[in-house]
Amino acid sequence: MRQIITHFTDDDLYKFTMCCAVIENYPRTRVKYKFIDRTGTIYPKGFADELRRQIAMLENLAITEEEIAFMKRRCRYIPDWFYSFLKGFRYDRRWATVSQDEEGHLSVEFEGCWSNTIMLEVKVLAIISELYYMMTGQADSLDYGAHYDRSFGKAERLIEAGCTFSDFGTRRRASFKAQDTAVKAMKECQNGLKGPESFIGTSNVYFAMKYDLTPVGTMAHELICALAGMYGPQMANYLAMKTWSKTYRGALGTFLYDTYGWRIFSLNFSEDYANMFKGLRVDSGDNYKELDMIVEKYRSLNIDPRSKQIVFSNGLDVDEAIRIQKYAEGKCQPSFGIGTYFTNNFPDVKPMNIVIKLLAVKITESWPFYCSTCKLSEDHGKYTGDEATVRRFKEAMHL
Fold first, then answer.
1. How far apart are CA 370 and CA 359, in angstroms?
2. Backbone φ/ψ region at 337: left (φ over 0), alpha (ψ -120 to 50), beta
3. Which of 12, 23, 135, 248 is the most buried (most CB within 10 A)?
4. d(CA 223, CA 146)
C-alpha cells in the first residue's frame, strides 16, 4: 500500500509552534499519549499491521529547503534555531505502539520525549482516517469533482455572509486529496470574488505553501494538559499563557481556554494577559453562551471586546458559522476554524470521531513515575483521562 504522508509539513501549524515552545521551556519532559475512538469503530483485519508500516515510513520524511523558506517567510514568529532542529528531526517508529484486539478495536499509544512525540499526533490521525477508508473500500467511491463543487459553494456562502474562516481539517480528512481539493476550491472561490479576504488560510503548512496561504494555528489542549499534570490544573492556564508569551512575545496570540472549562480559566485570565493575547478560541460548549461569558470578562477588565478576535472551532458547518457570525457582530471580531466539514464531507461516508490525547507526563526523564492528566472541556462527552484523574482534577478546581 502506498505511503500516505509524503511531505514533512503535511501537518498542522500548531504542532510546530508547540514543539518550539516545548523545546525552549520543557526540553527534558517525557509524555504518554493514547488514541481514542469515540464511536468504538471496528477496524478491518490487518489494520494495525498496515498502520505500523505507515508510521515506520514516516522515518523517511525530512523537511525540504523549500518548506523551510516558506515557513520563514510566513511564520516570522518562529525563531531561526528551530529550523536547525527540524532539519535534523527524524521520526522513529519506536515512539509508537500499535495493536488490534480480536474484535478489531484499535489501540495506539505514544511514549517518549515531548519534543519528539508531539510531532506524531496529526500525522497519525490523518493516516488512520485515510487508511480506514482505503481498507474498507470507501475511498473508491469518493467523487472529488463533486467535492470541489461543494467546497466552492461552502466558501461562497461564508464569504457572502461576511465570515472570516480557515481550514482546520487535517486530522480527520477523508484523504490527502480531499483536503487538497477543498483548499484549492476555497482559494479559487476567494480569488473570484471581490471584497476583503475572507478565506484566510489553512492549519496545514504544506497546503498553505502549495496555495500561497497563511498557515493558521497556535496551540492545542495538550500544552495545558501537560502543565496540569506537572503542576496541577488550578494554574495550568496561567502557566501556559506565561510559557507562550515567553516564547512568542505577543505573536500567535489566540489562546485556547477550554481545557478545564471557562470558570477556572477566567480566574487565571488577568488583565495583563487579556491585553496581551489577541483573543480566545471557543472549542467546546454552547458557542453563544461561551461568547457571552467572554464578552462579559473583557468588559469586567475594561477591555473593549470588539477589539478582540474570537475563533470558533467547535464542530462547525456553514449554517452554524453564519448564525454565530450574526450573533457575534458588534460584540467581537469573530472568525471560524472549520475542520471535518471541509475535508470529510462526502455522501454516504461517515467521518471518523477520533483523537489522540496526552494522558501522562513527567518533568524530566530522571523521575521514576509519570503524573496522569486529563481534559475537562465544556462538553462532558469530550472528557479524556481515567476516572480517578478526572475526579481528582474536578475536586482540585472545586467543580
1. 10
2. beta
3. 12
4. 38
Cα–Cα nearest to 208, from 239, 235, 184, 173: 184
Residue 68 C-alpha cell reads as 523551510
Residue whose grid cell is 500567535: 252
- Share the mean pLDDT of the chain: 97
Name residue 166's beta-bridge partners: 201, 337
Positive or negative, the CA dihedral 103, 105, 106, 109 is negative
> Are 283 and 255 in contact, with CB atoms under 8 Å apart?
no
Q: Where are the beta strands (DSSP E) in the chain?
A: 30-37, 96-100, 106-113, 165-167, 199-202, 214-215, 254-256, 279-282, 309-312, 333-338, 354-362, 371-372
pLDDT tens-digit readout, 319-330: 999 999 999 999
SS3 89: coil
Burial of 368 (0-12, 13-18, 19+ CB in 10 A): exposed
**Separation CA 28–CA 25 (nearest Å):** 9
Pairing of strands 279-282, 254-256: parallel
d(CA 201, CA 208): 7
Q: Which of 253, 207, 225, 214 is closest to 22 using CA atoms?
A: 225
The predicted-structure confidence for 319-369, as pLDDT tens digits, reads as follows 999 999 999 999 999 999 999 999 999 999 999 999 999 999 999 999 999
Enter the C-alpha cell of residue 293. Answer: 461569558
**Residue type at position 285:** G
